[in-house]
Amino acid sequence: MKASQFFISTLKEAPADAEVVSHKLMMRAGMIKRLGAGIYNYMPMGLRVIRKVEAIIREEMNRAGAVELLMPVVQPAELWQETGRFQAYGPELMRVKDRHERDFVIQPTSEEVITDIARQELRSYKQLPKNFFHIQTKFRDERRPRFGVMRGREFTMKDAYSFDRDKEGALKSYQVMYDAYCRIFDRFGLQYRAVAADTGAIGGDASHEFQVIADTGEDALVYCPTSDYAANIELAEALSLLPQRAAPTQPMAKTPTPGKSTCADVAALLGLPLQQTVKSLVLATDEKNEAGDIVKSTVWLLLVRGDHDLNEVKAGKVAGLKAGWRFATVAEIEEHFGCKPGYLGPIKTIKPVQVIADRTVANMADFVCGANEADFHITGVNWGRDLPEPDVVADIRNVVVGDPSPDGKGSLAIQRGIEVGHVFYLGTKYSKAMSANYLDETGKPQPMEMGCYGIGVTRILGAAIEQNHDERGIIWPAAIAPFATVLCPIGYDRSAEVKAAADQLHDELLAAGVDVLLDDRGERPGAMFADWELVGVPLRVVISDRALKEGLLEVQGRRDAEASKVPVAEVVAQVKARLSV
Amino acid sequence: MKASQFFISTLKEAPADAEVVSHKLMMRAGMIKRLGAGIYNYMPMGLRVIRKVEAIIREEMNRAGAVELLMPVVQPAELWQETGRFQAYGPELMRVKDRHERDFVIQPTSEEVITDIARQELRSYKQLPKNFFHIQTKFRDERRPRFGVMRGREFTMKDAYSFDRDKEGALKSYQVMYDAYCRIFDRFGLQYRAVAADTGAIGGDASHEFQVIADTGEDALVYCPTSDYAANIELAEALSLLPQRAAPTQPMAKTPTPGKSTCADVAALLGLPLQQTVKSLVLATDEKNEAGDIVKSTVWLLLVRGDHDLNEVKAGKVAGLKAGWRFATVAEIEEHFGCKPGYLGPIKTIKPVQVIADRTVANMADFVCGANEADFHITGVNWGRDLPEPDVVADIRNVVVGDPSPDGKGSLAIQRGIEVGHVFYLGTKYSKAMSANYLDETGKPQPMEMGCYGIGVTRILGAAIEQNHDERGIIWPAAIAPFATVLCPIGYDRSAEVKAAADQLHDELLAAGVDVLLDDRGERPGAMFADWELVGVPLRVVISDRALKEGLLEVQGRRDAEASKVPVAEVVAQVKARLSV
Question: Which positions fall inside the Aminoacyl-transfer RNA synthetases class-II family profile domain (chains A, B) (predicted)?
Answer without folding.
Answer: 33-477
